[in-house]
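## tool: complex_structure
## caller: assistant
## args:
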Amino acid sequence: MTSRTALIDTKGWIFLAALAVFCLAVPLLNLGVAEGSGLHLPTYLVSLFGKYLAFALLALSLDLVWGYCGILSLGHGAFFGLGGYAMGMYLMRQIGPRGVYGNPVLPDFMVFLNYKELPWYWLGFDNFAFAALMVLAVPGLLAFVFGWLAFRSRVTGVYLSIITQAMTFALMLAFFRNDMGLGGNNGLTDFKDILGFPVQAQGTRVALFVATGIALALGYLVARFMTVSAYGKILIAVRDAEPRTRFLGYRPEHYKTLAFTVSAMMAGVAGALYVPQVGIINPGEFAPTNSIEAVIWVAVGGRGTLVGAALGAVIVNYAKTVLTGAMPDAWLFALGALFVVVTLFLPKGIVGSLIERFGGRRARAKLPPEPAIAPKLAEEGQG
Amino acid sequence: MSDADLLEPPAADFAGPAGKRRVTDALLYLDDLKVTFDGYRALRGLSLTLDRGEMRAIIGPNGAGKTTMMDCITGKTRPDTGTALFDGVHDLRRLDEPAIADLGIGRKFQKPTVFESHTVADNILLALKGPRSGLASLFGWRNRVEAERIDALLAKVGLLAHRARPAADLSHGQKQWLEIGMLLAQDPKLLLVDEPVAGMTDAETAQTATLLREIARDHAVIVVEHDMHFVRALQCRVTCLHEGAVLAEGSIDAVSADPKVVEVYLGR
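## result:
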């Protein structure tokens, strides 16, 4: 066997262990501790933490393409939003006759807009399995088609970033239109049930939080499996020297399209788990700034480390919660300052810098004693 | 490269056009290749044939079209006119880089290009001949390659002691060897080697010549080089290019004695 990297390395174990503790502690402190107690964790915080974990999964998916393949997507919020809308459509169909207008089939906004029947693309969304499939399929298909066209035409670097940004912007404009049949400006909201459980109930919220934690762990394992395999090594080779891989017989466009598609599906799952926890999905999720913010999470945590991306998402969003509470106007300045500081002083992000600080010594120790220049070559030559 | 080139779909018949008659016995057959870049005529009717198992050195002053010729053979540049056949059946003008690499044409670049963030061993691993699809590399054999197989190749190019180092840490000469090692891992039918001894010491140059001669025992090799001592050490047929066409061809002594060649190298 070659020196194959372990599926879960030290930082991976730390990450998974921390995630497991978090996913056990939060339910315990919420459900297991009485409400009056000082240790009790309010339910709104459970959902807030669940939101952080959904963002962490989005960051992880972005890191898979940016960190390992050099695709700086400034439109990953689009895949997140599409996954969220697929889940939102399922949740809308679960409302049934409990809407304001009491129509058993049509959601309220359709009644309001004089729809006579359900548009064809809403069919099937009353079924959870179908909706779950769409959560993966819709972002995946968009990423596949978009990626295939862009990568085959050898669009790379800043040009690719710009068209990903244009993609999410175009989707935002499209989803704002009422005739899209997806709630227009207001989006989808007033959810009641998910799989028969009331969305607002404490138990459901805890379950959604745990489900998000599990999805994050699975997403990490999938990304990790991809990046430590020979596929991942080729992906990194494509990132560093794309033309060279072609002369070795690889088709970089295939490698990139696969990574982009898997990443988009992961982002879709993140969006789908986000929507029931925040209770709404609207076209604002497609706003270009959301996608750019996700890039900052990854940069802060450490690009190309997976764990760092997840950590960056949680840290930045926690800071956002605290700061927007204290000084709502200051957040964007703080975010901008954070990006500048990270770029200048922590170019490898938090986790990347930690690895360099503590993991570097071991890597250096593994080096062979100073090289004698190609002694073997001379011997071979004589033979 | 024009948009039309970029958008052209990869040829589906890279495995070899079925039923096509072999039109020549030469491994590589180039006839009257012409390439123009923005009005500059890089190749002006270049013709060259290479037999199976042959080693050939290509010399010529700067701008003679040596690298452009390699670009045409490997699919990086599409010639405007002319014929480029590999193995007598494959039309190289219709194929893109991965398809041509798949036919068995490997290339070492003038500036050594290895995958710097990968270890030396991983560079060889990625070059190893075998299925190259995404799914194959995700689940397939490339994840279960014996270390011995990689080590044997690394020993051949004298980099065994460096197997675990990032390729970025290698010296210039070592990168050149690593790239030759990657070529060997690809096990192509034809190796194109562009300036393999640029920046090497005399001792390293001599070692590289020995290595290339050994490789040439069971591969066809084209070596582009300026260094005349090195070309002499290769002990093979020499082609001199000038202004995008062949000026002279023959043994190193015959070519270097050719008055036309002398004129080109020494100036008028």
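## assistant note: Chain B has eleven helices and ten strands. Strands of chain B lie at 28-37, 40-50, 55-59, 81-86, 90-91, 105-108, 190-194, 220-224, 237-242, 245-250. Handing back to user.
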